[in-house]
Amino acid sequence: MRSAAPEGGRRTSRPAVRTATALAAGALLLPLVSATGPAGAAEPAADSLQHAFAEAAARYHVPSSVLLGVSYLESRWDAHAGAPSVDGGYGPMHLTDARAAVARDAARHSEADDDPRGDAARPVAAGRRAAAPQPLPAELPARLRTLPRAAELTGIPAARLRTDPAANILGGAALLAAEQRALGAARDAGPAGWYAAVARYAGAGDASGGRAFADEVFATLRNGQERTTDAGQRVTLAAAPALRPDAAQAKRLASAIRQAVAPAARPECPASVACESVPAPYEEFGDGDYGNHDKADRPEDLKVDTIVIHDTEGSWETSLKLVQDPTYVSWHYTVRSSDGLIAQHVPTKDVAWQAGNWYINSHSVGIEHEGFLAAPDAWYTEAMYRSSARLVTYLSRKYGVPLDRQHILGHDNVPGTTTSTIPGMHTDPGPYWDWAHYFTLLGKPFAAERRAAGDVVVIRPDYATNEPPYTGCEKAGEPCAAHGSEAVRLRVAPRADAALVADVGLRPDGSPSTTDVNDLGARASTGQRFAFAGQQGDWTAIWYLGQRAWFENPAKHPTAFRTSGATVTPKAGRATIPVYGRAYPEKAAYPAGVPVQEVSPLPYQLHAGERYATGGSVLGDYFSAPGYDPATHAVVRGTDRYYVIQVGHRIGYVRAADVEVRRGGA
């Protein structure tokens, strides 16, 4: 991961930021005066949030840089208009109030009931995949209830800590000061002397995750940061290149980690993250059944060429409990929200049951990100983004996975295996996962090139200011709160009032897609590459699901850029060609004893003259794993070659025999 550079343009205005004053009349609560004044007054100055950090630091005697650094690792200083994160954290300091957040939550990413194994030859029984996990454990861990503790320390009502950014910052400062006191450390020790308190801030209760979080905070302090927040506030953290943690505190924390970590198989993780092993079982049960993954020997028997990004529908504790159940399903890693701690469950050589598409499962690593809030507008912490990006970079280097959007997929980009499975496919992590920021952390930012023309369009709206209207975040049909998004919406004509394009896989009658937050039928995602199909004024067209699809792309505020790249088009003389959801081998490739898997086309067709961006080709194969004994497993390899294409919001496959490949302007 590259060190984070200053990034982010000015964002659209959010609810006003308030500033703190130094008035304390015999009460613990530091009164807050709204920066906006009476209703109708001017919006706050662009440095109001910076002053709020300074005033909270002075009130609780916390170094201002430490407070800023912790907040950046939690929220990048954003307030998110009072909405909670995926693990119930609020405001710039990510104060957690899980019970309140769950009470607010009403929607899930989708009503998906896909088979996470995705192999028609041996499907996972519906009873093992339909039940939604309980989002929270009966007894909440400390890391999920830091906001109530901040309310006790400050005297500020919990509701205000959730919605008022300046109050939220005071709560975070109070928590840090309390941790420093509990450690018996001097409050005037300077930033270096707050290392241990920072490690304890997230309330995770374990030294390993805390140290990783503190190390990221101190790296941020050394590098410095500045950006404009989601409320239009400009915040700056000056770099301190020579800063290092207090040596004695670092030594004690390292000792605590050595004592706490039980001997276990070393997880497959980069050295730069906190990682532990929480193995998923491989066990037989019931009448010939087993779970919860399949033994393999990747990459010797199957190439790993894809990484799938998910979010859980349970807390860290709940997710770890479920993945250790042999009757449940599996994934390779889970990333914790509060501090970025990673747990590995399935060795990457083995096949986890995670994506709902057996071909994708056979060739991918699945990473779940803690998120018990299923409301699609819940946000993700910076600590989680950074830790996840480090893990993906490590896996990319280990297996040679290209860092692009046809190989680093969201679960919402995984295709259905057959027509009947399309409606049940998952839609996480959703339109509020910041792919542009994620790929910047991966060291592969989506940057426009100098050339103005090209045959490939790369989707790249400004996340902060791109706010397409969505519905259904909290209640079906009701508008979602305005929110930055990584997606653009696609229409049948270059007009804002034109109908949204249709997805016949979701609506066989050809009716238009909708603005529902879980409806992917007319949506293109940041970093995805599509073939250019035309330009009219401020509108750009791409080829999408067998049709020309238009999106607004004004020159002054572009939402995409053009570049060169490889595309495929139906061979001459072919009016249409089929699209597939998996790259299975031809019938003749199957040996005796291995059931032939039907190569079933999806309902989408590519028409003569249309072009689709490709991420490369693969030879068809099928991993046959019919039972518990790995000796019964086999890999069927064919000679049919397929091209991976960006057919719609999800990827697809076309036979090489059906298409011509064109490169550049050819």
From TrEMBL:
Catalytically driven reaction(s): Hydrolyzes the link between N-acetylmuramoyl residues and L-amino acid residues in certain cell-wall glycopeptides
UniProt keyword annotations, A-Z: Cell wall biogenesis/degradation, Hydrolase, Signal
Signal peptide stretch: 1-41
Annotated region described as Disordered, given as residue ranges: 101-140
CDD domains in the record: PGRP (cd06583)
InterPro entries tied to this protein: Amidase/PGRP_sf, Amidase_domain, Lysozyme-like_dom_sf, NAMLAA_amidase_2
Enzyme class: hydrolase
Superkingdom to which the source organism belongs: Bacteria
Enzyme nomenclature, EC number: 3.5.1.28
Molecular-function GO terms, alphabetical: N-acetylmuramoyl-L-alanine amidase activity
Protein name: N-acetylmuramoyl-L-alanine amidase
Lineage: Bacteria, Bacillati, Actinomycetota, Actinomycetes, Kitasatosporales
